[in-house]
Design brief:
The protein has 406 residues and is mainly beta. It is built from three helices and 23 strands. Strand 4 and strand 5 (82-92) form a beta hairpin.
């Protein structure tokens, strides 16, 4: 992974003052699709890990979602049987945007539309690689521009379908200008899809350097110096959607410790000893991460027969999730993870989930979850969630399948 910081890219910004011609979908695709590439990652043994998309933003530079690169030892970008090796140049994990560097790469860069040209209700086009189907185009509407309480951009809400493999792809306006990077879909709400604002791309190098400097400063001033972790460092889970049968690998990689804090996945997740979650910016574990109670589902060995209420609210962009749950310690047993037999305590959660978007209730649904917590490693090793409502459809599991040192 390269940490040499080059001069920030001079991204091409379209001038709003000039009238831009509206392109037919055919012309738009022909014009911009050469700038959208497939991203493939592999582990240290050459085993395929993930597949996503990336957009060319300058000579030898592409942008993608950081979560596409999790656990990657090697990265490549490909299109029409042509493949190039790539390296991570600037990671902005907080915003989930990572800039790639590719040598001897001359694909055409996109033009980026200025934010003042975005219009809710305008037709937009996504080009990416859903499910590995290379350079697929889909259309829809820009259905919302979501902002934070400080009025800064957070996400572009769209009706364009987003599927696995689309992460890191391009969202274009009718003039063929990039307005966003397609990134995620809310599983439990119909047709709520999102893209990250394209004007963030120019800020990635500076934010990456600032994040690195902050980490270095924190490491040098911490009461206990940062230590390279030993022993168990990689926790690999299998996330399964039991309604579709789709499954994927989810990895939490321990990179360092700072005092009593354990830093995972380039700082995207921070835990304390025992599994308590301090912060979690990327919900890669599906429902397990997306609606997790403050501090985690279980962060210490519970007493037999204990019970407690878990009433809390989770905000993710325009979606508000309110959970009203009752937790009850059920039993102890043994689960086998890789070559280990781990004693686990099962905690059952039951109650209701309420999903609200745009200030309007989407649906309320009965909610059930079971959590298996292993005190010996201070982690949840299995999670199951079930919700069946008019718009809330959840039936998935997350199970720890491997623990290793690297």
């Amino acid at each position: 992974m390269s940490r040499t910081f080059a001069t920030p890219l001079l991204l091409t910004l379209a001038l709003p003052a000039l009238a831009q011609p509206v392109l037919t979908p055919e012309t738009l695709f022909e014009q911009v699709s050469p700038s959208v590439w497939v991203v493939r990652t592999q582990d240290s043994a050459g085993k395929p890990l993930a597949l996503g998309s990336a957009v060319v933003i300058g000579p030898g530079r592409l942008i993608t979602n950081c979560h596409v690169l999790v656990r990657a030892k090697t990265i490549s970008v490909a299109r029409e049987n042509v493949s190039y090796g790539a390296t991570l140049e600037f990671p902005d994990a907080e915003r989930d945007l990572c800039q790639l560097k590719v040598a001897n790469f001359n694909a055409p860069p996109v033009t980026i539309a200025p934010p003042d040209s975005w219009r809710v209700g305008a037709r937009v086009y996504a080009i990416g690689n859903p499910r590995g189907l290379e350079t697929t185009i889909s259309d829809g509407l820009l259905s919302g521009i979501r902002r934070s309480q400080q009025n800064s951009f957070e996400a572009l809400q769209i009706t364009v379908p987003i599927s696995p493999g689309s992460s890191g792809g391009g969202l274009f306006d009718a003039q063929g200008r990039l307005i966003g990077i397609t990134t995620f879909v809310l599983r439990d709400a119909q047709n709520l899809n999102f893209a990250l604002p394209a004007n963030w791309i120019a800020e990635v190098p500076e934010r990456a350097q600032a994040a690195l400097a902050k980490r270095q400063t924190a490491a040098s001033t911490a009461a206990a110096p940062a230590a390279a972790p030993v022993g168990d460092r990689v926790f690999e889970y299998r996330l399964r959607d039991r309604m579709t049968g789709n499954a994927q690998s989810v990895v939490y990689r321990l990179e360092r410790t700072e005092g009593d804090q354990r830093i995972f996945n380039q700082g995207a997740r921070v835990e304390r000893e025992g599994g308590g979650v301090v912060s979690n910016r990327l919900a890669i574990g599906g429902e397990f991460d997306a609606v997790m109670p403050p501090g985690g589902w279980v962060s210490a060995r519970p007493e037999p027969g204990a019970g407690w209420d878990a009433r809390y609210e989770v905000r993710r962009n325009d979606l508000v999730v309110r959970m009203e749950l009752r937790a009850q310690v059920a039993d102890s047993s043994t689960l086998r993870v890789g070559a280990r037999d781990l004693e686990v305590v099962r905690v059952n959660f039951s109650g209701f989930t309420h999903r609200i978007t745009g200030g309007h209730m989407v649906n309320s649904s009965p909610y059930e979850a079971s959590v298996w917590y292993a005190p010996a490693i201070g982690r949840v090793v299995r999670f199951e969630a079930l919700a069946r409502g008019r718009a809330v459809q959840v039936n998935e599991s997350l199970e720890l399948v491997d623990i290793r040192s690297d």
